[in-house]
Structure formats: C-alpha cells, structure tokens
Amino acid sequence: MNLMPEFSHALVVCISAIFTQNILLSYFLGLCPFIGSSREIKSALGLGAAVIFVMTCTCALNWLVYHKVLVPLHLEFFRFIMFIIVIAAFVQFVEMAIDRLSPSLYQKLGVFLPLITVNCAILGASLFMVIRDYNFISTVGYGLGSGTGWFMAIVVMANIRTRLNNDAIPKGLQGAGITLIIVGIMALAFIGFTGVLAGK
After folding, report:
1. How many domains, the chain?
2. In the prediction, which pLDDT does 91 show?
3. Sign of CA dihedral 188, 193, 194, 195
4. Is 120 part of any domain?
5. CA 126 distance to own-chain centroid
6. How many CB atoms lie within 10 A of CB 81?
7. How far is CA 48 from CA 33, 101, 130, 132, 156, in A?
8. Phi then psi dihedrals of residue 168, to 5 deg
9. How many whole angstroms separate alpha carbon 77 and alpha carbon 51?
10. How confident is the model over 160-187, as a mean pLDDT?
C-alpha cells in the first residue's frame, strides 16, 4: 500500500494550516488566551508549545473516537460532548505534567493553562477535521499545523508587545486596543499567503 500520496496531502494540509488557514489569524479562534498570555515571551513559548501538543494529540484522539466509536454506533450527534470530554481530560494531563516538570512556567501561565480546555481553537480544529473529512494522517497534520500556526502567532505577538512596552502609545489604544490592531495587521499579512496553498 502506497502511503506517499496520503503523507504528501498531510504535509500540504499542515503547511496550509500554518500559513493560509491559520486558525487564529484566519478564523480568529483562541483569541482570549492569545491576548492574555502574549505579554511575555517565556509564557507565550510555554503556552504555544502546550497548544501544539494538545491540538495535535486531541485531533488524533477525536478522529479515532469519531470514526471508530461514534460513526459505527450512529451517534455522530454526540461529537461535541465527546470532543470536549477528550480535550478536557487531555488538558488535565498536560497541566499536571507542566506543574511537575516546570512549576515556574505553571505559575506564569496561571489560569490560561486550564483555559486550554475551553480554547475554541482546540475544539475548532477537531470540528474542522470532521467537516473536511480528513483521514487520520491528514488529521494529525492538520492538528500539528494548526497548533504550530497558533504558536507562531502568539510568539510573534509577544515579541511585538515586549518591544512596545517602552514606546509612547496613545492612552486610548493601550492594552487590548493596540493588541487587537496588531492582530488585524498580522491577519492581513497572512492573507497574502492565500491562494499559494489550499489545504482543503
């Protein structure tokens, strides 16, 4: 059985999920933890890495749950509940692992680490996987690409925000205002990749 076409499709899906279909900058999913944790580069790196890991693993697990359990039993309408249960359980595992391995990072991330559970980007990736009818390999590629795209966006934003700390910003634009303007400009930049790669 030749798996090369499947792997090449998964690679295209992965790259397009990073650039042309960035889950944050194209669909604006996961903005709350993105804005909250992009003040410092270290916390942005930590949360971004956690999102990559969680999104890749939960997309794969949710594909298995959907296609091997829900579809054979004709219970597809339970996918929202099942996806949320899988995501919540996996995030709990990641939270305990980070608390054990890096307590300082765990303290810096604070409330935003458990908020990965309700990060709509994580659930959105699993739902897009179902809507687009990806196979398992493409689903893993999409989860990895979506997580990497989110990671890249939050690290870039953290770098920009740390540089803006010493600059004179009008009072009315300080905080969330200037952050949302930067997100809009970043989204416009990523729109320039549209049409280069289509990972449908």
Report:
1. 1
2. 87
3. positive
4. yes
5. 11
6. 10
7. 10, 16, 24, 25, 11
8. -80, 115
9. 26
10. 81
Q: Which two tokens stand for residue 175?
A: 């905080």
What are the backbone angles phi and psi of residue 159, rounded to the nearest 5°?
-65, -45
Separation CA 62–CA 139 (nearest Å): 10
Q: What is the CA radius of gyration of the chain?
A: 18
Residue 49: pLDDT above 80?
A: yes
**Cα–Cα distance measured from residue 139 to residue 48, given in angstroms and rounded to the nearest whole number:** 19
1 is a domain residue: no
- Asked if pLDDT for residue 55 goes beyond 90, the answer is yes
Contact of 153 with 37, CB cutoff 8 Å: no
- What confidence score (pLDDT) does residue 122 get? 92
Q: Which residues contact 34 (CB under 8 A, 6 or more apart)?
A: 24, 150, 153, 154, 157, 183
pLDDT digit string (tens) for 145-157? 999 999 999 999 9
83-103 pLDDT, tens digit per residue, is 999 999 998 888 888 888 888
* Residue located via tokens 């099942």: 82
Q: What is the percentage of the chain residues whose pLDDT exceeds 70?
A: 92
- Give this prediction's pTM: 0.86
Half-sphere exposure of 70 (CA within 13 A, CB side): 17
Contact 24, 30 (CB under 8 A): yes
